[in-house]
Specification:
heterotrimer, B: mainly alpha, 13 helices, C: mainly alpha, 10 helices
Chain lengths: ~600, ~325, ~270
């Protein structure tokens, strides 16, 4: 039994008067991946920063505990190590990668410069030798055209490529431990799959240990050997990944696992239903579709383009083809999801339907009324019937307006009577105390703010609600509660949702029908079961393959793939795109040719 | 190529606008050139005759056209106060102002950048507080107050520097610097204070960014992280702000040059304003605004060179 | 809120309150004659028991002059900033919120005006209109407008792009309601900060203009005018410059400190 590479013993870290990490202990063995999982405020990041002694730079202090690193010369307590020792360890024996690939690299230095300064520092390599090693590292992380990349600047690389460079930098001196702090959270799911596979392969090739911090239980199921669950600065449970998933002991772990939507668990169920969360005794009620589906929203050949302006006179030189020839129908009382990765046009689609941006062509009919033909004042009246819930719970509420006023604003706009009474009822409906009506947004948590947004959307009794990544910015447990709320409201009030998301597992849970988008077009659309059980289009299949499943028994970590980079949606003004033509695979199930 | 052409077009347009604004502002005068030449007590008939001669009865647009036409052909008119051609007058005085603007900018940048970085590195500790307080003091005191203090201390009391006058660098370089030093310092102190604050806030913003953390995680020394990695990102914004401050400087030189009797553009403009020398006012104000605009343009172009993100677009 | 009570906040706030109090109440308490009474025997004398700040070249007590001068200087600066806000706020909000060609045209104009150094613009306007108290106010007010308008436009643009504005639009809010309910309340904090700092600059501007003789004229007693009058006596009576200059410096310092702290409280992302 090999000794652990790192033993964390009773670590206690504080920032000023707040204790962020309390008596945390666990160990990491060589060759294994330990996932430290928790929601925001759990202290998982602070723990990793403490190992690297970077926490002091953010105003933190290690108050107690030992951080034992097993190295060649013996065992070293990193908590007591002096700065020169720490500097020789950082980027050398311990490598670290962070969450945001967009900002992890210095914007004004070339890739080569940023890769070689670590090599120069720790291995004494200079000039051609350093450059050769840098190329070798880039090849290890499977970056296409590595010679080109060296000369480039970070902003010329995509997010996924930047993350590969960051990994290459961390691996440069063959560390015995790699700390990865949410490295895939900001990436698309296909890129995430590649990065996870990459880290796994590097681990197997070099025998290093990996400490992987994440909030995503599905990722944990896919890559972890052991799991450390953290909550509010403390470790609540540790164990092998199979044990944790099959037999969670601590109630927080159980609640967390119950809140994670698992890809595949809706298999065989006819209709979406709320999640069964810890503490709920009644069985969840499925939201059945109506016997005779009545169309509510009919979108035909919708096209939206955004102008690209260039040159000093800001002339219109090209177009971003955000939405290209999109057609679908949403029935009353149902949920249609638009799913895809970033830049596929799903948000623009939602905005176009509401006419928050103006489509270039196409038709949008809400309950038979042509939305695009309405004059400005008629459109304003129509807004009663279609409302939106936005992604960012912080930014979608006016910081200077009381919550009651925010919920009553739509009602006041249309001169509805009894706005205050209705607002109080809505607060009850979204399970917020009436005393909150006098409060301001900054006094509420993210999940509570999203409930206000839901209350605001419901206030005018709309026929259609567009939820644009409405739960993406929330913690997993909060996300589950908000999703359940939305589904319960749908059942009670017969609401119709256009649900926009990038999260396949969530989409599987809430949808009656699913439309998969890619580069502005719908590539596949159909009933949820059809899309998830029998996907037809290559992109849908790739997407489903890349989604991590929250079940360690179903590992689908791919070998190194290289998903082709998404081509640019920007075309010159003269470009004429072809129309979308579909092939009917089954009843209601269409695939783009 | 078309980018440069477009830029030049933009510049020409702005210069035209500047000339229009200058003309409008200076010609809402109740009195006029004729009165200034002959005095307010003069014979009304003679006044009328002079007005006719000078074309002051023509519509404003014509007068404007004449002025611009003159400028384009090199005839900038004659100063009523100095009785000389304005063109060479301005050219001459410009050298003087150019000297102190360059000197004050240099002094300011050389001191402000290290000070600002130092304050940012020691954020919220005594070093930061000391630097921030002194720079706050620096921006709060008017330039002419600094000027008066400097005159009292260095010119009258210590007698290290002269308190007035201008010497052309071509004639006597050392003397020129000696005479320009106190005015440059008076201008530069306020500027230095402002740039220190700017540098500090830019640096603190950068030091909070992820790539700084990544650099530290690589094991780089704090000195490298601050002075190479971070400063490289701060230089751009700081230089930009400094460049934009040139506009502010050209306003302050009016006061400072008058205080030091330093015969540059500021002093010239002041004389023009004081004596209602309309042709001179028009020309000096126009030149100053044009120079400021061109400096801003230069700073824009410089930024393209400094920041690779903009360069490759 | 606690951020308001840092050392900087307390010192800055106290200075501002003190100066405001002096500006408001001193003229009610101190008879004007104290400041205008000339005593040629005591002229240009340093600080003594009877004249705590000394006297100027006409034997007038500097302490009373500088105290009463506070009202003039503050009033000029305050009114000037008010003028620039009254012009700049609608301009900036319309430009930033509506965008499009209005924004292009207005900002073109504002940018061109910004090529003229504010002090130069103020001096020119004042010289052209004829220097006196009212024209000084107008000159400084107009000179500061482009800068303020640009800042306000930037803030209005930023707020107009926030999701809550889009949410309000989706909820059927019209433009007028949008500006009143959402845009204005959210741009107020940075504008308050900017106004405080502009006040400081306006005091400096008035001092500069009067120092050059193109601002307030005798018998109006402003601080700038006092500094100007002291120019010839710097060698023998430096306090004649130090007293009004110190008053300007302390007031501006207080405003800058207070403005800084206000920025920390109201507009944290900017600091």
């Amino acid at each position: 039994m090999t000794d652990p590479i790192v033993i964390i013993d009773q670590l206690r870290v504080g920032f000023g008067d707040t204790i962020a990490v309390k008596d945390v202990s666990f160990s990491i063995n060589p060759g294994e991946t330990v996932c430290v999982v928790g929601e925001s405020g759990s202290g998982k990041s602070v723990t990793s920063l403490s190992i690297m002694r970077l926490v002091e730079f953010g105003g933190g202090a290690i108050l107690n505990g030992r951080l034992l690193l097993n190295r060649e010369g013996g065992v070293l307590d990193l908590a007591q190590a002096d700065t020169p020792t720490m500097r020789s360890i950082r980027g050398n024996e311990i490598g670290m990668i962070f969450q945001e690939p967009m900002t992890s690299l210095n914007p004004v230095f070339t890739i080569e410069r940023q890769m070689t300064d670590g090599l120069r520092l720790h291995l004494g390599l200079t000039g051609a030798a350093a450059r050769a090693r840098a190329l070798e590292l880039l090849r290890d992380v499977r970056i296409p055209e590595p010679e080109q990349r060296l000369k480039q600047y970070p902003h010329e690389l995509s997010g996924g490529m930047r993350q590969r460079v960051v990994i290459a930098i961390a691996m440069a001196c063959r560390p015995s431990l790699l700390i990865a702090d949410e490295p895939t959270t900001a990436l698309d799911v296909t890129i995430q799959a590649e990065i996870l596979a990459l880290i796994n392969r590097l681990k197997q090739e070099t025998g290093m240990a990996v400490m992987f911090i994440t909030h995503d239980m599905a990722v944990v199921a896919q890559i972890a050997d052991r799991v450390v669950v953290m909550y509010r600065g403390e470790v609540v449970e540790t164990g092998a990944v199979t044990d944790i998933f099959a037999n969670p002991q601590h109630e927080y772990t159980r609640a967390l696992l119950a809140a994670v939507p698992r890809l595949g668990e809706m298999h065989g169920k006819a209709a979406p239903e709320p999640m069964r969360l810890v503490g709920q005794n009644h069985a969840p009620k499925p939201i059945l579709a109506r016997e005779t589906p009545t169309p509510l929203l009919e979108v035909a050949h919708l096209t939206t383009r955004f102008p690209v302006r260039g040159g000093p006179l800001r002339r219109h030189i090209a177009n971003v083809h955000a939405v290209e020839d999109v057609s679908f129908t949403l029935n009353k009382g149902e949920t249609l999801s638009l799913v895809g990765e970033s830049g596929c046009g799903k948000s623009s689609c939602g905005r176009s339907i509401l006419r928050l941006v103006n489509p270039a062509s196409g038709s949008i009919k809400l309950d038979g009324v042509d939305v695009l033909a309405q004059s400005k004042s008629a459109l304003r009246q129509m807004r009663r019937d279609m409302q939106m819930i936005f992604q960012d719970p912080f930014a979608s509420l006016n910081p200077y307006m009381r919550l009651e006023a925010q919920v009553t604003e739509p009602m006041r706009n249309f001169g509805m009577a009894d706005a205050s009474d209705r607002a109080a009822m809505l607060f009850d409906r979204v399970e917020l105390p009436r005393s909150y009506m006098r409060r301001f947004p900054h006094e509420l948590s993210g999940g509570q703010r999203q409930r206000i947004a839901i209350a605001r959307a419901l206030s005018v009794s709309p026929k259609l609600i567009i939820a644009d990544e409405a739960v993406s910015a929330l913690d997993v447990s909060v996300q589950a509660q908000v999703l359940n709320l939305m589904m319960e409201l749908q059942a009670d009030l017969n609401l119709s949702f256009l649900f926009i998301s990038h999260d396949m597992a969530v989409v599987e849970r809430v949808s009656h029908h699913v439309a998969v988008m890619y580069l502005g077009r719908i590539v596949e659309i159909g009933p949820r079961a059809a899309i998830f059980d029998t996907p037809q289009h290559a992109y849908t299949k790739a997407l489903l393959k890349a989604v991590p499943i929250a079940d360690p028994a179903k590992r689908n970590l791919l070998g190194d793939l290289n998903f082709k980079p998404i081509p640019s949606p920007v075309h010159p003004r003269s470009y004429v795109p072809e129309a979308s033509t579909y092939e009917t695979v089954a009843q209601g199930h269409l695939v783009l040719r | 190529m078309s980018y440069i052409l477009n830029r030049l077009l933009s510049v020409a347009l702005t210069l035209a606008l500047i000339s229009m604004i200058t003309f409008v502002v200076t010609n809402i005068l109740p009195g006029d050139v004729a009165m200034v030449i002959m005095g307010t007590q003069s014979n009304p008939e003679a006044l009328a005759g002079l007005r006719e001669n000078l074309g002051l009865n023509d519509p404003l647009i014509m007068q404007y056209g004449r002025w611009v036409g003159g400028m384009l052909t090199g005839d900038w008119g004659k100063s009523l106060v100095f009785k000389e051609a304005i063109g060479p007058l301005i050219a001459q005085k410009f050298v003087a102002s150019g000297l102190i603007v360059v000197m004050s900018m240099t002094i300011a940048l050389v001191c402000a950048i290290p000070l600002g970085v130092w304050a940012a590195v020691h954020q919220n500790k005594w070093q930061d507080n000391a630097a921030s307080t002194t720079s706050l003091l620096g921006v709060s005191l008017p330039d002419f107050f600094w000027g008066i203090m400097l005159i009292l201390l260095f010119a009258r009391y210590l007698e290290w520097f002269p308190s007035s006058g201008f010497v052309h660098p071509a004639d006597d370089f050392l003397g020129a610097v000696r005479h320009a030093f106190l005015p440059s310092l008076a201008l530069g102190l306020g500027l230095m204070a402002h740039l220190t604050r700017m540098t500090r806030s830019t640096m603190t913003g950068i030091l909070n960014q992820e790539f700084v953390r990544v650099a530290r995680a690589k094991g780089l020394s704090e000195r490298t992280v601050v002075w190479r990695y971070s400063l490289a990102n701060a230089i751009g914004p700081v230089i930009t702000v400094a460049g934009l401050q040139v506009g502010y400087l050209f306003g302050s030189i009016i006061v400072v040059e008058s205080l030091f009797n330093f015969t540059g553009m500021g002093w010239l403009t002041y004389q023009a304003l004081l004596n209602r020398d309309i042709p001179l006012i028009q020309s000096t104000v126009f030149v100053i605004a044009a120079v400021v605009m061109l400096t801003n343009l230069l700073v824009d172009l410089l930024y393209v060179v400094i920041d690779p993100r903009i360069r490759l677009n | 809120m606690a951020k308001l009570f840092t050392l900087k906040g307390i010192v800055g706030g106290s200075i501002v309150l003190l100066v405001l109090a002096i500006a408001l109440f001193a003229p009610l308490v101190i008879p004007e004659s104290y400041a205008t009474q000339m005593d040629m025997r005591a002229r240009l004398s340093g600080p003594t028991a009877t004249h705590i700040f000394g006297t100027d070249q006409l034997g007038r007590d500097l302490f009373y002059r500088v105290t009463l001068g506070a009202q003039t200087s503050i009033m000029i600066a305050g009114t000037a900033v008010l003028i620039s806000l009254v012009i700049g706020l609608p301009l900036g909000v319309i430009s930033g919120y509506f965008g499009g060609w209005i924004d292009n045209v207005l900002m073109r104009l504002v940018d061109t005006l910004l090529a003229f150094p504010a002090l130069l613009l103020a001096l020119t306007i004042s010289a052209v209109l004829g220097p006196n108290l009212t024209n000084t106010i107008i000159a400084i007010g107009i000179a500061f407008t482009p800068f303020l308008a640009r800042i306000i436009r930037g803030e209005a643009l930023r707020v107009a792009q926030m999701p809550y504005v889009e949410a309000a639009r989706a909820a059927g809010t019209n433009d007028a309601a949008m500006i009143l309910r959402h845009i204005l309340p959210n741009i107020m904090p940075p504008i308050i900060v900017q106004a405080t700092i502009s006040l400081a600059f306006a005091i400096l501007a008035e001092a500069g203009l009067s120092f050059l003789g193109l601002g307030t004229q005798p018998p109006d007693a402003s601080w700038g005018l006092m500094i100007q009058a002291s120019r010839d006596y710097l060698d023998i009576a430096p306090w004649t410059a130090l007293v009004p200059g110190g008053a300007v410096a302390i007031t501006v310092l207080g405003l800058n400190m207070f403005g800084d702290v206000l920025r920390d409280v109201l507009d944290p992302r900017a600091s």
